[in-house]
Amino acid sequence: MLLIRNGTVLDGEGIRKKDILIDESGVIVRLEDSISSIENIEEIDVDKFVVAPSFVDMHTHLRVPGNEEAEDIESATTAAVLGGFTHLVAMPNTDPVIDSVSKVFDLKRRIQNSNAKCEIIISSAITCGRMGKELVDFRDLSQMGIMYFTDDGNGVDDPELFDFALALAQEYGVTVAQHLEFKEFRENKYFVNEGEVSSYLGMSGIKAVSEEAMLARDLAIAAHYNVHYHAMHVSTRRSVELIRIAKQAGINVTAEVTPHHLLLDEREVLKLDSTSFVNPPLRTEEDCLALRKGILDGTIDAIATDHAPHLNEVKDQPFISTAPGFIGLESAFRVSLSAICKTSKFGDVVPQGAESVVKAMSLNPAKILKISGKSEGGLGVGSVAEIVVLDMNSVSNLDASSFSSKSRNTPFDGMELRGKVVHTIRKGKLVVKNGILQS
Ligand SMILES: [Zn+2]
To answer: Considering the chain, what percentage of its residues have pLDDT values greater than 90?
Structure first.
């Protein structure tokens, strides 16, 4: 049993100061203004901290199978719980690609035989091998419980094929998530935004319209179906506007943004360091501000890490061939809070904007993914205790050398960031206590 004292509960049901008692089976059994001490049960005092539903990452590159040197199940899930996550969606762009019942079965077996520290939700590719030519077997995959389909890393270019994918998604009640990028716009380009910075550096960059054009096309197709469509890592002002309009028009669309697109803009690339390269590229300051606004007004539903571990030798390549992407599980909360709460004053347990960050990292992704026991929201009596305890006011410099991820590709190393994940509770057990993994 565990008693959490004096926490400020932030779970979408109104902000309130409560004590929480969790029983042996990991279920919240009491949520009251004050619970008196009970003999022989562990107590943690979280006065001045926020108690929220644990985080759910909709976008993790697990690198399993095929690239276990960059990350494996144990290292990724350890990084996840240290970052406040108890659930993550594993992207299917592995080697081999997760695109069939047998590949899903193999990954499930690997997860069962691993020392995973959090739940892993398996996703499937939309097309075989993510080649954009032939659709996977939506029926068989959905029957074995796969509810999330994406060719992440590639967009599905062919409109007819994508239309057919949405028809099947409607038939089997699954979500299609798109990496928004037309292949033709990326060829021979650097992972930099096409704009002032790219022309200053003499680099040909990736245009914003590469993302926006695919998003507009997808929304037009999705409008013909009763289907859930999810826009991954949106990065431009116009993408946010398109999503806003689509939602108003009643299209069942949700969207995510990464922490790095919330905090950094294209000027980061001027450092000429390969850790500035990511896809979609860091955009303009105006885009960055529009993404933050999208989180604050709810147009963008989720913050998802796009955790993309790479070994140093893969990252340290000439810029044109460097592997794009950052690790993000252990820095996501701090980076997002720093971006959204830039102007909030210090000292408040719940600074202005923090509620939106928490919602976008916990309640919203749980709802989008229909995670049982979590999608209903709140930390009410009777719910499984999947909880994160957050300090919104701590400020420190990020130290990537302390990360549990096997990779170190982050542009945030050494950066002063706000916020801290203090405790992570999974199924009622403290898996991270005072920032330290519990065995
Ligand atoms: Zn992607």
So the answer is: 90
Contact in structure between 73 and 405 (CB atoms under 8 Å): no
* 109 pLDDT tier (thresholds 50, 70, 90): very high
DSSP string, 313-338: HHHSS-GGGSPP----TTTHHHHHHH
- How far CA 263 is from CA of 144, 205, 331, 352, 358, in Å, comes to 38, 20, 12, 17, 16
pLDDT digits (tens, 9 = 90+) for 349-378: 999 999 999 999 999 999 999 998 776 777
Would residue 158 show up in a list of annotated catalytic residues for this protein?
Answer: no
Torsional sign, CA 98, 100, 105, 106: negative
Sole residue written with tokens 């009777």: 382
Distance 48 CA to ligand 1 centre (A): 37
Asked whether residue 320 carries a pLDDT value surpassing 70, the answer given is no
Tell me 398's DSSP state. Answer: -
Q: Are 365 and 287 in contact (CB under 8 A)?
A: no
The CATH fold of domain 54-372: TIM Barrel (3.20.20)
* Active-site residue, from 306, 348, 391, 399: 306
pTM of structure: 0.97
Domain boundary assignment for the chain: 54-372
Q: Kindly state the average pLDDT of the residues 321-340.
A: 94
Q: What is the dihedral of CA 412, 414, 417, 420, to 10 degrees?
A: 100
What is the spatial distance between Cα 255 and Cα 300, in angstroms, rounded to a whole number?
A: 5
CA–centroid distance, 126 to ligand 1, in Å, is 13
